[in-house]
Every structure is written in C-alpha cells, then in structure tokens.
Amino acid sequence: MMKSYIAIQSTLFNGVIDLVGYTDMQGNIRLTHTSIYAYMSRTFPQMSMEFDVRSTDVNHAVVVCRLRSKIFDGSVRTVTEIGETSASLLPDKFKGYPVQVAQYIAFDRAAIKYLGLPSNTYSTFEPPYFTENAIRIPDPANYVLGFGIFRNRTVQQAFEEAKYNEASHATMDLYLHIDPATEKDPVKREGLYAIQQYLALYRSRGCQ
Questions:
Q1: Computed from CA positions of residues 32, 34, 35, 36, in that sequence, does the dihedral angle turn out positive or negative?
Q2: Which structural domain, as residue segments, surrounds residue 148?
Q3: For 101-153, what is each residue's pLDDT tens digit?
Q4: pLDDT one-digit tens code per residue, 63-95
Q5: Number of compact structural domains in the chain
Q6: Confidence of residue 37 (pLDDT cuts 50, 70, 90)
Q7: Handedness of CA 135, 30, 104, 95 (dihedral sign)
Q8: What is the C-alpha separation between 115 and 118, in angstroms, rounded?
Q9: β-pairing, 121-123 with 76-85?
Q10: Terminus-to-terminus CA distance in the chain, angstroms?
Q11: How far apart, in Å, are the Cα atoms of 193 and each of 103, 141, 145?
Q12: Coil, strand or helix: which one is 192?
C-alpha cells in the first residue's frame, strides 16, 4: 500500500492532525509506528512511556504500554493498552522480534487512544491484515465458516462464542493474527477474510 500523510480527526485536540499511513480496502486508517512515535515524542516531549513485558514466549508475546503526560489544559492524561503477537504469524523480517512487535502494537494502540483518533484507526502492525488482493466478503457477519472449531457457525456466532469460552477466545485471537493471503487452504483463507472483515466493520461502527 502507498503511504502518505493523512489528515485525521483528533478528539484530544478537537481538530485535525497529520500522520503517515494509508486507508485499507475496508476503509480503515492504518498508521505507521514510526509516524505515531515521532508525533507523540514531538508533541508530548515530557510524556512518560512505561512498558511491562508480560510474556516473552515467541508463540505469544505480550506487552503492556502506559502513556502518561500533561495535556494543554494542565490535566494529566493516562492511557494503558496491551499488545500481543506471535513469531509464527509475523513477516520474515520480524519473526525474530515478537516482543518488540508486541511493544510496537501496545504503544500504537495507546497513542491512538490517547489522541482520540477514530475507532477505525489502527497501526500497520495490527491485525486484521488486508492486502490489495484480499477476498471481499459481502456479508461477513452471516458468513458460515467451514473450518476449525467454528465450523458451521456464522462469523457473528463465532465471535459471540469467543466472548464466553476461553478456548474459543484463544482460537479467535489466533485467527485475527493470521494474514489470510498466506493461507493455502481456500476454505480457511476465505473464512479468515470473513472473520477479519467482520471485526473491522464492528470496530468502524464504534464497537470495541
């Protein structure tokens, strides 16, 4: 995807700020970590950035990021977010650095929340992944999955199950971190697109 400056609304500043990224095929805004970090460092030079590494497991790296700084009205704003990833799900150049990528994700999530950017704004490190050749699912909520533990369930039913079942939640989290374009099984590939596009639509409507 071609990256360029994007004018994006910030509720923190009640105005527009410029960050580097692109708009994916689902209409989500994808911002680069470099751009987010540079903007936060420049705008909030006294900002405290705390990182708590919860897991260094290459199969499930987890990092918590806490951002804290005074804002223009003199009050202190604090935001905490979690970043998670797995080495097996990362592009080759990042496979050796799952903890670092989890840290990037945590920071970017915290910064996006701190700035009050739209709910469909994500870091480029964030799943769901969409490529130019992605399969477009017209109605992802009612798409019936044909693989795994969610077989014969609609995507919406699968997400509901994942809310209350620990094993289902873990499986859904895994599916959200897989780039569908790398999946060779066409049934699973299309199902992954449906799952990830449903999540994007859900978030774009202001749901979390």
A1: positive
A2: 144-204
A3: 999 999 999 999 999 999 889 898 876 554 445 677 888 899 999 999 999 99
A4: 999 999 998 888 999 999 988 887 876 777 888
A5: 2
A6: very high
A7: positive
A8: 9
A9: unpaired
A10: 26
A11: 25, 11, 11
A12: helix
- Ramachandran region, residue 152 (left: φ > 0; alpha: ψ -120 to 50; beta: rest): left
> Edge to edge, what strands does the sheet with 76-85 contain?
48-57, 60-70, 76-85
| Domain stop point among 74, 90, 123 | 123
Q: Is the model's pLDDT at 204 over the cut of 70?
A: no
How far is CA 148 from its chain centroid?
23
Mean pLDDT of the chain: 86
Length of the chain: 208
Sheet strands (E) in 86-196: 121-123
Residue type, 35: S
pTM score, two decimals? 0.65
Q: Is residue 118 part of a domain?
A: yes
Residue 79 β-bridge partners: 67
Omega before residue 186 within 30° of 0, cis = no
Query: Can you read off the two tokens belonging to residue 74?
Result: 């003199």
207 has a pLDDT exceeding 70:
no
Distances in whole angstroms, Cα of residue 173 to Cα of each of 5, 134, 170: 31, 20, 5
The number of helices, as runs of H, and strands, as runs of E, in the chain is 5, 7
Candidates 29, 33, 37; CA nearest to 7 is: 29
What whole-number percentage of the chain has pLDDT above 90?
50
Rounded to an integer, what distance in angstroms lies between the CA atom of residue 46 and that of residue 178?
36
Pair 62, 159 in one domain: no
